[in-house]
Each structure stands twice: as C-alpha cells, then as structure tokens.
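Q: I have 106 residues here and want to know how they pack in 3D. Can you give me a structure?
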Amino acid sequence: MSARRDLGPEFEDAVVESFLDKMGQEVDRRVDERIAQRASKAPARDRAPDGQRLALAIVSLSLGTISTLLLVLLGDGKAGYLVPIWLGIIIINVIFNSGRSNDKSG
C-alpha cells in the first residue's frame, strides 16, 4: 500500500499486477508443496511379485488345457465352450498383470 502511495496513481496498475503476480506464485508454490507431500505419502502400487504372476500363468494354462481336453473328449458340441473359457483366462491374466503400476521405483 505504501508503494502505491509513493508511486502515485499512474503506477497503480503496475503495483496491483505485481502484487497479484507474487500472490499467484505463492499459491502455486503452496499447491506444489501439498501435491509433493501427498505423493510422498501415497502408498506405492507395485507389480505383483514374479512368483505370483508365474503361479497364475501356470494355473491358467493348466485349467485351460484340462478344460480343452475334457470338452474335446466329451464331444457332442461342447467344444463351443472353449472360446469363453480361454477368453476368461486371458482377461483374468491381463487384468492381473496390467492392473498395477509398471514403475517399480514407487
């Protein structure tokens, strides 16, 4: 306010603009700090351990193979169930392996 009085009315716009610019920078700084704090406190979402991914792959292939053999051996048009079974297995594996962050650094 004293700068406004000292400089006079011809510099009023410049003084107000400078004040608003400084306030905007301060608000941005505080928001950045809060975002950084929340990011550091957020739990890291890591990928599933390699053992779990391997176990799911083995179980999926085993169940898919057994299902395929049973439906083919039983015959009588039951082979049509193979497509939904294998699609389900693929979807489960894709969701399990891509539903987590790829970044292991946290």
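Q: Anything worth noting?
A: Residues 12-41 form the longest helix (30 residues). The two ends are 47 Å apart (CA to CA).
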